[in-house]
Design a protein that fits this description.
Length: 1177
């Protein structure tokens, strides 16, 4: 054999009779395989076919592919076959000297399909598909045609002539030509449909263009007027822009002026406040002197008067509240009462309507009862005649039906007999062909679905990934929107806090704090330095009675600034140095150390008269404990100096009056100016606002950072989503198309299969029965005709059509009446539902009315009680004032001076309030002026025009007048179809395009007709090229085998695809005969010659022949074996045979036998060894 590709080895595992792993090595040339019947020789052929892409299990002698799995004592759940090819000449297009093709079947039962299985394909160990197998093997010229199975030789004889011709069709690739012809035909039909459709559209477009022309002309004129209107509006905008810019300049000047006024007012406020403090101090001194003169009684009376005044104010507020509540509830009561009356009227109206519907319903039921009685009477009247006529009618119907059926049956039986006789001979062959096609399609469909599942799984993974990313994107965008909303809220909150802080700072001069402390707090409030919490004084709360003691205990440390850490403290110190603001103390929370009270202090705090540790008398957040320890340490607060003197020595003590005794024994005391560092309302408010402002600013900053991160994440996800593409997989698309084709084909095949199966079961039975039924039916038909005539005459005599007609009319009336009754009932129920709702509303309103009246009574009772209390307190206060007047007569001089000072204080308070009000008003004016600027800037942005106008322009009024004229003209033209411009151009473009499409489609139609004819011509030419070559091969091979003449004949040479293919041979010394007229041996030689001729057309590197010499005599078997031996010089032949002559011609002989019910290969052996175990013929 020439060097080249050949089958090196077959590897079997659990395949059919091979129940274990078996390797069968092969060599080039002629290899014979022999063995006893049933030993598994043909299973080797089945294994090769299994790899070559068998579509139907029948081809490998199995009901289903899972039947290929070995069934032994322990049944396996898979089988596997591998073919190992020598590929040194690279006939298989893989860069490897050896190619291993492996196919595996594994059972995979499912609940709804216990016979389910999966197929696996591998090329050199890598996953592949059945189509890849076929493509690779086809490239090397290997296909199913290389295999000749048992029965193939006789099949050539038994198959029909058309089937035989189709073998040539397959080799010539006629199916591809048919597919191209069908494709061209479908394309031509599609073109014709498109052409017809486009011509209809084109006619409609031309009609639309004619209609659009007038609209288009109007639209052009309208557009010109619009252009002029736009220019005048632009001119107006230009004029407005100049006005807005002028107004903005004025506002900026106003803001500058207001700021100057604000500064002056703030200076004035400081001066007045200083004067006010001095007067207030002097006033307090006089008050004290008067108090000394009046004694405790006067002080007590004054306190009572003050309390009574407060009670009177509270009473007045309650009286006003009760009166307002009474008025509101009285109004609500009247409104509810009105609604109740309205509902009562509505209830009466609905009840009336319900009554009417009930009456209508009752009347309908009475009328219905009358009609039903009348119908029953008519039925009784015709009851007897009806029974007779109905019986006769039923008999006539039965007779007519029987007569028609008899006639049809007679005709059908005659046709069926002829048809069954014709079908009987061909039915079995057709049935087998259909069954094989069905199995082939089912197997291929299973393989394709397996491949599609794998591909779809990959697509699902992509979709799951996409859904996960889209869900995350949605969540992020939702979070983004939430953060944006919160940032906008914070913007408003920050602006509000800044404004409120500015107002308070205007009133609070913070004279008690050093310049450095104020500078740091301002830096915090303005966001210059982050991490500043505030001064100690700001961050604690103190009860008013302890305020003086705590202030003295803290001293200047109250100004100490609490910060996050030492880094912030360093930034603050650098800020003070840079701006020359002075020095301040900072308390970094990360470095401060807390402490514990000393033993002496712990003992002293238990002493009578001790209030407690100073640090325990202030309220603060736990995180500030170390800072407050720095400020207060274990300082103790006591009630008075006597208590302090008892405890002094070694501990720091402060009295409630503000006297302080240091641990060293030093005592500081006396009078002091009230600074109210702790507990000052405005200062506390400033601290709170500053904290809120700082927190809001910090939150805004954090949210902004988070927003940037979210935007980055959104961008990343969007990029990832855009990278996930769902491009159509050509392989999946091709498989889906093939799957669809197979399913459609399978539907047709299954239908045909069912019909054939049914026909096969019924045909024999029908043939036996039909002749007997034909004779019987003729007699029945005669009897039926006589009886039918008799019954029809009898029926005509008794029929009463008038009564039947009246019955039908009454039935119609009854149906209509029942419909009216149902409608009345439905309307009644609807109204009853309305009544229920109205009654429930009335009940609810009556409850509300009762509740409102009860509340009015309660309020009037409370009002009466409060008015009495008010009068009582007023009388008591007047009496107290009279007592006070008498007591204060003694201190008249001091009172006059006090009253004068009081007037001065009131005047200063009013002036301070006036200045504060003016400051607030100025701030408000500044805010309003600044607030107007964005509006004007927005307005300015809106009126910016691209066109600049030079020279003198008309006035705004003249421009507006011209705009109005143009708008009126435009309005008169309304309605104008402005789309007509675009639509006209679009339709004209469509007209041109469709006219081009018509020309193109006509040309395409012409080309497709021409293409179809050319394909048909090529199809025929291709067929004859193949046919002539195979015919030539057949004549040559037959001459070599039988020393005779032969030829292949077409039934219709002019139209070969409309007829079959016949084989005619002339054995040596005999006349020419068709295949069917030959003897058994002659048929086998002719069939083998035909098979060898087919194989010779497309030579393969190897062939497998299964007992082709079974029916040959010694002489012909020798000729066939000799021919195979000669051909084996150019190709590899694997032949299964039991013939001695064949085995003698082989280069290598393998034996197959059965051991423990499993096939076993006996290596290369000689003929004598074989004859010991095999009966060789």
């Amino acid at each position: 054999m020439r060097g080249g590709m050949y089958l090196k080895e077959i590897q079997l595992e659990n395949f059919k009779s091979f129940g274990k792993k078996v390797r069968i090595p092969f060599l080039p040339g002629f290899t014979a395989i022999t063995g006893p019947n049933g030993s598994g020789k043909s299973n080797i052929v089945d294994a090769i076919l299994f790899i070559l892409g068998v579509r139907s299990p029948k081809m490998v002698r199995a009901e289903r592919l899972t039947d290929l799995i070995h069934k032994g004592e322990r049944e396996a759940d898979y089988c596997k076959v591998s073919l190992v090819f020598d590929n040194s000449d690279k006939l298989i297009p893989i860069e490897s000297d050896e190619v291993v093709l492996t196919r595996k079947i594994r059972k995979a039962p499912l609940p709804n399909n216990p016979l389910n299985y999966y197929s696996y394909f591998y090329v050199n160990g890598k996953a592949a598909s059945l189509n890849e197998f076929i493509e690779l093997l086809s490239a090397a010229g290997i296909s199913e045609n290389c295999i000749v199975q048992q029965g193939d030789v006789t099949a050539v004889v038994e198959m029909g002539s058309v089937h035989r011709r189709k073998i040539i069709d397959e080799i010539a690739g006629i199916a591809e030509f048919d597919a191209e012809i069908e494709k061209a035909r479908k394309e031509r039909e599609e073109v014709e449909r498109n052409l017809e459709h486009i011509e209809i559209i084109l006619g409609e477009i031309k009609k639309q263009i004619r209609q659009l022309k007038k609209d288009r002309d109007d639209a052009i004129k309208y557009k010109e007027l619009e252009k002029e209107l736009k220019r005048h509006k632009s001119m107006l905008a230009y004029k407005k822009r100049i006005e807005i810019e002028r107004e903005m300049n004025e506002i900026n000047k106003q803001i500058e002026s207001y700021e100057k006024s604000r500064k002056n007012l703030e200076e004035e406020a400081k001066r007045l406040k200083k004067e006010y403090n001095n007067k207030a101090l002097e006033f307090q001194e006089i008050e004290d002197k008067i108090a000394e003169m009046g004694g405790e009684e006067l002080i007590e009376i004054k306190n009572k008067i003050d309390l009574l005044k407060e009670e009177l104010i509270k009473s007045k507020e309650k009286i006003n509240y009760y009166r307002m509540e009474i008025a509101e509830n009285d109004g609500e009561t009247k409104e509810i009462d009105s609604k109740i009356k309205k509902l009562e009227k509505e209830i009466k109206r609905i009840e009336k309507e319900i009554k009417l519907f009930k009456e209508k319903e009752e009347e309908g039921k009475k009328e219905l009862e009358k009609l039903k009685k009348k119908l029953d009477g008519l039925k009784k009247e015709v009851e007897h005649s009806d029974e007779v006529s109905m019986n006769i009618g039923r008999e006539i119907a039965k007779l007519r039906k029987a007569l028609i059926e008899s006639k049809e049956k007679e005709h059908e039986i005659n046709l069926e007999i002829d048809r069954l006789i014709q079908q009987k001979n061909g039915l079995l062959l057709q049935f087998n062909e259909v069954k094989e096609k069905k199995e082939s399609f089912e197997t291929e469909l299973n393989e394709i679905e397996s491949e599609i599942r794998e591909a779809r799984q990959k697509e699902k993974e992509k979709h799951r990934s996409k859904e996960r990313l889209e869900t995350k994107l949605f969540q992020l965008k939702k979070e983004e929107a939430t953060i944006n909303d919160r940032i906008r809220e914070l913007d408003k909150e920050i602006i509000y806090l800044q404004r409120e802080l500015a107002k308070l700072k205007t009133k609070e001069d913070m004279t008690s704090f050093s310049r450095a402390a104020k500078a740091i707090l301002d830096a915090r409030d303005n966001g210059i330095i982050k991490g500043i919490h505030g001064s100690v004084a700001e961050l604690v709360e103190v009860d008013e009675k302890y305020a003086k003691a705590i202030e003295i205990a803290a001293g200047r440390r109250a100004e100490a600034i609490i910060v996050d850490d030492d880094g912030v403290a360093a930034k603050c110190i650098e800020y003070l140095k840079k701006n020359n603001y002075g020095r301040a103390t900072f308390l970094p929370l990360n470095k401060l150390m807390t402490g514990k009270p000393r033993g002496k202090a712990l003992l002293a705090v238990r002493h009578e008269g001790v209030v407690g540790f100073a640090i325990d008398l202030v309220k603060y957040e736990p995180r500030y404990h170390a800072a407050l320890w720095y400020v207060f340490g274990d300082t103790i607060v006591v009630k008075d100096m006597d208590t302090a003197r008892e405890l002094m020595g070694g501990i720091r003590i402060v009295t409630l009056d503000g006297d302080i005794i240091e641990a060293s024994g030093a005592i500081t005391g006396g009078s002091m100016e009230a600074r109210a560092i702790f507990g000052a309302a405005e200062r506390k408010k400033i601290g709170e606002l500053a904290t809120m402002l700082r927190n809001a600013s910090q939150e805004q900053e954090e949210l902004t950072k988070k927003l940037i991160e979210i935007k980055d994440e959104i961008s990343r996800i969007e990029d990832e989503l855009s990278s996930i593409t769902f491009l159509p997989d050509e392989n999946i698309e091709r498989l889906e198309i093939r799957k669809k084709e197979l399913k459609e084909s399978l539907k047709v095949i299954l239908k045909e299969f069912g019909e054939r199966e049914r026909e096969a079961k019924e045909i024999e039975e029908k043939l036996k029965e039909k002749e007997r039924e034909s004779r019987k039916i003729k007699e029945e038909m005669s009897q039926l005709q006589d009886l039918l005539k008799e019954k029809e005459n009898e029926l005509m005599r008794i029929a009463k059509k008038e009564i039947l007609k009246e019955i039908e009319e009454i039935k119609e009336k009854i149906e209509e009446m029942e419909k009216d009754i149902r409608n009345a009932e439905s309307q009644r129920k609807t109204k009853e539902m309305e009544l229920k709702i109205s009654v429930e509303q009335k009940d609810e309103l009556e409850k509300r009315l009762e509740k409102s009246k009860k509340k009015i009574q309660e309020m009037r009772k409370l009002l009466n009680e409060e008015e009495q209390r008010y009068q009582k307190n007023m009388n008591e206060m007047k009496a107290m004032e009279e007592v006070e007047r008498k007591l204060t007569t003694k201190a008249k001089g001091l009172q006059d001076k006090r009253d004068k000072l009081y007037k001065e204080i009131v005047r200063l308070e009013n002036e301070i309030d006036t200045v504060s009000t003016r400051i607030e008003a100025t701030i408000e004016l500044i805010s309003k002026a600044k607030a107007r600027l964005p509006t004007l800037e927005a307005a300015l942005a809106e009126v910016i025009t691209e066109e600049e106008f030079k020279g003198e322009l008309p006035s705004i009024e003249e421009i507006k007048k011209k705009i109005k004229e143009l708008e009126e003209k435009l309005e008169k033209m309304q309605p104008v179809n402005m789309r007509a411009l675009e639509e006209y151009e679009r339709q004209d473009e469509r007209r041109k395009k469709f006219e081009e499409d018509v020309a193109r489609l006509k040309e395409q139609e012409k080309n497709l007709i021409k293409l179809e004819e050319e394909i048909k011509k090529k199809k025929k030419e291709s067929f004859f090229v193949v046919f002539n070559k195979i015919n030539e091969n057949f004549q040559k091979i037959y001459r070599e085998l039988a020393n005779g003449e032969s030829e292949l004949l077409l039934e219709n040479p002019d139209e070969p695809f409309e007829g079959g293919l016949y084989i005619r041979v002339k054995p040596a010394g005999k006349r020419a005969l068709h295949l069917n007229a030959l003897s058994g041996g002659e048929k086998s030689i002719a069939s083998l010659a035909f098979i060898f001729a087919l194989q010779a057309y497309n030579p393969s590197p190897f062939y497998v022949l299964d007992e082709i010499d079974m029916f040959l005599d010694e002489k012909n078997a020798d000729k066939v074996a000799t021919m195979i031996a000669n051909k084996a010089k150019d190709a590899q032949f694997i032949v299964i045979s039991l013939r001695r002559i064949t085995l003698q011609k082989a280069n290598h002989i393998y034996g197959v036998t059965t051991i423990d019910e499993k096939s076993t290969i006996i290596g290369s052996i000689n003929l004598n060894e074989i004859e010991k175990v095999v009966e060789v013929k």
